[in-house]
Write a structure and sequence with these properties.
Elements (H helix, E strand, L loop, with lengths): L104 H6 L6 E7 L6 E9 L4 E10 L5 E2 L9 E2 L1 E10 L10 E3 L22 E4 L25 E4 L9 E3 L1 H10 L7 E6 H4 L2
Parallel strand pairs: 1-11, 4-5, 6-7, 9-10
Antiparallel strand pairs: 1-2, 2-3, 6-8, 6-11, 8-9
Protein name: L,D-peptidoglycan transpeptidase YkuD (ErfK/YbiS/YcfS/YnhG family)
Organism: Streptomyces albogriseolus
Length: 291
Amino acid sequence: MASSIDCPDRAPRAVSGAARRPSAGPVRLRTGVWLRAVVLVVLAVLTGCGAGSGTGARDDPAATGSTAREHPSATAPAAGAPGAAGTAQGRPATEATAVIPGLGPRTRAWIPGDARQVVVVTGRDRNANHSVAVLYRHTGTGWEAGPVWPARNALRGWTDDHWAGDLRSPIGVYSLSDAGGLLPDPGTRLPYDRSDGFAVSGTGFEGEPLEGSFDYVVAIDYNREPGTSPLDLTRPLGADRGGGIWLHVDHDGPTQGCVSLTKQHMRDLLLALDPALHPVVVMGDAASLRE
């Protein structure tokens, strides 16, 4: 996006709504680096999801705290990526599967053993900025898929060694602990920070308006502090490793590092995510996720 929209420029503030709670647990990043909790970057600090001239600059769309697990869970359930399952608009699975389609043994090993909700974001290829997202829920006997949602990611695609300003989304498995947005809480069970700090303006990489992109966001726990507002600027790994990586509303163009969904699908996701099920996001290009 032309204006680096990912993280609005404002100082951290108390979160409204449900009390903040700790992350479901650290998740391993592909680089093998311990990601501790770091809080989101403010729009003015880093260049966010888009590129250009907005109200601030968010270097990495996931600037706030992310917890990454260095050691894979030995009891992690098998998982896979949605790949080409269903249509672009989505088609619910009719029965649970033993593993999530498209995820290889290494990716499955990164998923914490207690995770019972997994959002799988699969990029078309390493350098593509279009992807699909599917929310899987473990039923006790297997993984049941929700609809397949069209999604976008960073302008230059994906990377397993993310740095601020590289315009690539980080590959890995990350917990989903906190949410927020410019609009009122739609009823999510995640802690939700409703704030004017999520307002954004300007245009994106393709000249599209960025307004409304942060109506709803879910912080991806990459280089951020779980249990804080997505607007928090804490960066456990340092600002040079980026931050402020969010799931947020699509603005009809590629992001600076975030993953975006349509406004309705973001609302659906917020209503579905349950902290008691320790939700995580598995994200990357299809070839990397198959490893």
